[in-house]
Specification:
The chain is built from seven helices and four strands, in the order ααβααβαβαβα. The chain is of the alpha+beta class. It has a single domain, classed as 3-Layer(aba) Sandwich (NADH Oxidase). It starts with 5 loop residues before the first helix and ends in a 16-residue tail after the last helix. The structure holds the ligand Cc1cc2c(cc1C)N(C[C@H](O)[C@H](O)[C@H](O)COP(=O)(O)O)c1[nH]c(=O)[nH]c(=O)c1N2. The site of the ligand Cc1cc2c(cc1C)N(C[C@H](O)[C@H](O)[C@H](O)COP(=O)(O)O)c1[nH]c(=O)[nH]c(=O)c1N2 has 11 residues, from β3. Belongs to the BluB family.
């Protein structure tokens, strides 16, 4: 039986503390096979009914990447318009994607039509398909950090537009667009906290007993 000792547990906690959403990447390619290795780890994640609904699209094509970047710019300008006053001024200073610099773009979808898993666990909660995909992304995020690789999640995008740019099956629901590469810097504090947008709160604020 495999056992994990206190040293491992301490290091694992450090991994959680030092995982970051990365938007600033070094101009350095990832080694061959790195993304495929992260995808392999993501596929070890739990999924409803063992349905493994995650679908990964490595976006290499420069024209498709450009179209995603253009979509981000449009959506981010729209998002800025939803704020006013000091909040808008602050939003405008935030860096909310590393799409231009990241050596790797990875889009992740949930296949809503797959019959892998035979529907187990999904009848009353079909959204568990997407939850399963998000759990895989979290695993990949942590595994990347363990290798010194940074990952940034970009959701300021139009899902229909991304669907058409990447030309994927209609049954695939867009879940995430990830920028992957080596971070410019390491930090144990979220970038949004450093930018004074929001701060990480204590777990007790989110926990009830009944
Ligand atoms: C579903 C989802 C979607 C997004 C994010 C995360 C998640 C989970 N985050 C990253 C988010 O801002 C970040 O996780 C928090 O600010 C906390 O920072 P750390 O991840 O701890 O560094 C994110 N960040 C960003 O710059 N642009 C974005 O569009 C998004 N979208």
């Amino acid at each position: 039986m495999i056992e994990f000792d206190d040293t491992f547990r301490r290091q694992l906690r450090e991994l959680f503390v030092w995982r970051r959403d990365v938007r600033r990447f070094r101009n350095q390619a990832l080694p061959d096979g790195a993304v495929e290795r992260l995808i392999d780890i993501a596929c070890l994640s739990p999924s409803v009914g063992l349905s493994q609904p995650w679908r990964f699209v490595i976006v290499d094509d420069p024209e498709r990447r450009r179209a995603v970047i253009d979509d981000f710019k449009t959506c981010n300008a729209d998002a800025l318009n939803c704020y006013s006053g000091e909040r808008a001024a602050r939003y405008a200073t935030l860096k909310l994607s590393g799409l231009e610099q990241a050596p790797c773009h990875l889009a992740i979808f949930a296949d809503k039509a797959s019959d892998i898993g035979h529907g187990l666990g999904r009848a009353t909660m079909p959204e568990t398909t997407e939850y399963s995909v998000v759990s895989a992304i979290t695993a990949m995020w942590l595994a990347a950090r363990a290798e010194g690789i940074g990952l940034g999640w970009v959701s300021i995008l139009n899902p229909q537009r991304i669907h058409s740019v990447l030309d994927v099956p209609v049954s695939w629901k867009f879940v995430a667009y990830l920028c992957i590469g080596y971070p410019e810097a390491e930090c144990d504090q979220p970038e949004l906290e450093r930018a004074k947008w929001e701060h990480r709160r204590d777990a007790s604020e989110f926990t009830l007993r009944r």
